[in-house]
Automatic annotation (TrEMBL):
PROSITE patterns in alphabetical order: ATPASE_E1_E2 (PS00154), HMA_2 (PS50846)
Name of the protein this chain belongs to: Cd(2+)-exporting ATPase
GO MF terms held by the record: ATP binding; ATP hydrolysis activity; metal ion binding; P-type cadmium transporter activity
Membrane topology, record value: Multi-pass membrane protein
Catalytic reactions of this protein: Cd(2+)(in) + ATP + H2O = Cd(2+)(out) + ADP + phosphate + H(+)
SUPFAM superfamilies in alphabetical order: Calcium ATPase, transduction domain A, Calcium ATPase, transmembrane domain M, HAD-like, HMA, heavy metal-associated domain, Metal cation-transporting ATPase, ATP-binding domain N
The EC number(s) this enzyme carries: 7.2.2.21
UniProt similarity note: Belongs to the cation transport ATPase (P-type) (TC 3.A.3) family. Type IB subfamily.
Compartment(s) where it occurs, according to its Swiss-Prot or TrEMBL record: Cell membrane
Species name: Clostridium pasteurianum BC1
InterPro entries (UniProt xref): ATPase_P-typ_cyto_dom_N, ATPase_P-typ_P_site, ATPase_P-typ_TM_dom_sf, ATPase_P-typ_transduc_dom_A_sf, ATPase_P-type_domA, Cation_Transport_ATPase_IB, HAD-like_sf, HAD_sf
GO cellular component: plasma membrane
Amino acid sequence: MNVKKRELILEGLCCANCAAKIENKSKNISGVSSANIDFVSKKLTLEIENENEIIRILEEAKSIVKKIEPDVKIIDTSIKDINAEADEEDNSSKKIKFAGLAVGVILYIVTFFLADSSNVKVIFSIAAYLLIGAEVLIKSFKNIIRGEVFDENFLMSIASIGALAIKQYPEGIAVMLFYQIGETFQDMAVDRSRRSITKLMDIKPEFANLQVKDDFMKVHPEDVNIGDIILIKPGEKVPLDGTIIKGASMVDTSDLTGESLPREVNVGSTVLGGFINENGVLTVKVTKGFGESAVSKILELVQNASSKKAQTENFITKFARYYTPIVTLSAVLLAVVPTLVIPGTHFSQWLYRALVFLVVSCPCALVISIPLGFFGGIGGASRKGILIKGSNYLEALYNVKTVVFDKTGTLTKGVFTVTEVNSRNNITEDELLEYAALAESYSNHPIAKSILKAYEDKNGKLETVHNNDIPACKMRAKCQNIMPNSINLKKSNNSSIDKISKAIFKPCKYKSNTDHDTLNYSELAGYGIKAIIKGKNILAGNAKLMKNENIAYEDVNTIGTIIHIAIDNIYAGYIVISDELKNDSASTIKALKNLGMKKTVMLTGDASRVAAEIGNKLGIDEVYSELLPNEKVEKFEMLYSMKTPKEKILYVGDGVNDAPVLARADVGVAMGGLGSDAAIEASDVVIMTDEPSKLVTAIKVARKTQYIVWQNIIFALGIKVVILALGALGFANMWEAVFGDVGVALIAVLNSMRALNVRKL
């Protein structure tokens, strides 16, 4: 099914409780598979099943919005009908509102100097009340007509009118005044949070200097194509991903990676959209279109993060749906029942207590602050180069107890170097290296690249192999495109994952009739390479490949990855390749254990001796080695079955062969700098700097966010319960009730903003 996404921006949406109602009713529109409202960005996202139904569905959604929030301006992002007149109209209405409030406050102050029995005081009090609360009263009246009764406007109207009815004029006016002041400060705090989060995402480049013949033209980044040449001047943002072909400079990568120190780049270096060029002039050849660039993907990830809500958010939304009606019913019973059953009581006394109930019953403190807390955590993590794709994954990070690592490119740098070449059976070392380089020349694996580099450093470029005019040499491009679309399946079942694994790792064979050095090439995932080179059958791979082909090989006892080579089924020798550990790998494992992780595990295809050495050096609890790609999935399933239902298991990887495990994990973490597109697509968290230690930061952000969210829940509910109890007993008045509503909401919103600050973890 081809689901279409459409977005409506709800300009002026300031009621979180109303936002939850809009989302809930939009989900029930026929033809809508999913509806999500992001209160932070004020965006309603609809997933529509049938393209022909889009117009009808959008009209129904707009009708729902107008019914619940008639003053909200609806902007269809596909039409882009945003205009300055709406902003001017909004500013004008705000000025009128504040003028009315100012006059109302003056009249309210005057009433304190008038005699209690004076008719003038009554008139001034009513005038002050109407000036201060007119907006709330009008909204409440409109909502009642539309059948939307239980909202904060209704509660405040009933409470304040009730106070006036029992001649508690100062408190009736105070309820409306402090509600309005509280709402104003609350809106300011929410807007500040929105701006802070939006500022974090202000990384989109506005233009690119595109080379047109001998000149450069300023164009939109979306108008630049792959292969085009762009110029980046000092102080400008890099608009698209590309490779430097001229110039050298220092670039600020902090917006994307969180790295504080500038990075040096020169000819041959890769630069990503969103970097800021600090000093030199750079000429760059574009390698990715804007839609596929790093900056575009980051913006998309963060903007869509709010659609995947945490369980806590969903719970609070459901809670608010029942909480307000229950408290309102309790207020009615509190006003009526005691008067009927307790002799000598006055209705006005219990009505006042019931009004206190109504004022404090609004759940906005929870409905606003919790999404802000999660979104703040996601925004704060992105500032550190950690992209979390949804608040549900941020919540899952809090519960992680088992961390599973891939080795190459995750714990190690993935930069291999040939350290030994040992030939056997009358084959020289130069010949052995040449055959190995020819066999590995089509592979994109880091080990293959290291062998090719070692040969080229010694003998020059392998010209006969890398001639793009020869059809066989185009296989490298073909091999890069074997990832099936099915990898987008999230949290697939075991059989689906097994199919994905087989689809990814089937041998890639290519034959050519061209007179060429290398023919009948076959790459066997988890084993090595078979090829015919200069008329000879060449095998290059690990010990398992030698065993499968019944080759008597030399069992080497050394640290590093061993590539055995056989020529025409005769053992020709081996090459030792070493990979260096990342600087922060050991400290990451130690920090994870300090955070209370029950188990750290490494899964690798390396020989058991090499894997064990690395595991011991890093302090990893369990190491599983010599694993084929499908065996990685099986081993992960075993680990998954050992955890408790509440515990979460996390997997960190960077390559195509990690994608099935990333999709299966509760939280899949991809190394975004070195990682493949498939791994990034299948993951839930992306670490842009390829530093394992950022995993520790991500977990700390998740824990801090969770603490803030629960602080808000406990604080808001605790204060409300206390005031409800005191109000029922007659010890709390309207002043405390107003604080229990807008005051608590304001404090909760300000507390949520702490999630943006990840510097103090």
